[in-house]
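Interim report to the steering committee. The following record documents the input for Probable UV DNA damage endonuclease (305 residues).
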Amino acid sequence: MGYACISVKTKNNPNKKTTVAQVNKLDPPARLKKLRQVMQANFFNLMDLLAYNVENQIFLYRLPSEFVPLATHPVAAEWDWAKEFAWDFQKAGNYIRNHGIRLTAHPGHYSILNSDKPSVLEATIADFSYHAKVFDLLGLDDNSVLVTHVGGVYEDKASSLARFASNFEQLPENVKRRVVVENDDTSFTMREVLELCERIGVPMVLDIHHHNCHSDGEDWTEYLPRIIQTWGERTPKMHMSSPKSANDFRAHADDIDPEAFLTFVSALADYNVDIILECKNKDDALLTLRRELKKKGVAVEAFTN
């Protein structure tokens, strides 16, 4: 089990950032100094957080998208952050590999690969390329994936899915090998995403909460072998969250319902699967879930492989 981006149990998180407005107030030397300071803080916090995760036997973690400040914005176009922080990337990558940690990333909701607007597609490819570059610089294998949704329906699902497949081919090869696609809670169902992934040859991330929000009545367990198959030799990734309430079902709850979690993972008993918990209480929710499962007599010791 892992969590997304922010630890609520520690104060150091690798998501420090600055704004375009703040940077634009500075002259070029001061601008670079500001960007460097933010990124150095993020590297310091990343190492601190990874050590905390290892101490608590958490070996799956989603890196915040803002790790490199303004990485894809023109204001930072002249900044060669990859070269300047090469030693830091090497150090962090060695730690991640030596401790069997798997990182993932989830590019922002403004990155829409099936967009019919050239400017949005261009920005999306730049964003995906940035995320892939970070994982490449860390020296991480293909288990470090970039999770994305299909995108908009644009009044025609078939065309929107076809456009995703077509635009996917425009991605650089180092990005293609990391992209995985997740079913969402309003537009594209588990089955539709699975068929797309099989079509273009990429893994599918099953989000069980999204499936419960939006489906055509399919029994997800019947599709499980096909979902697992899309991952090949890689470790499948899945997402788990609990609804905030019956009236606000799509929103994520603070914690994970232990009974719902047990029901979910019981169907996964024959597989080795990474599960990112998406909930407001982040790592605290993960540790709380472990305690609740132990009370039920369920072994929850973490391990790497």
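Strands lie at 2-4, 60-62, 102-104, 146-149, 179-182, 204-207, 237-240, 274-277. The committee is asked to note this result when reviewing the revised timeline.
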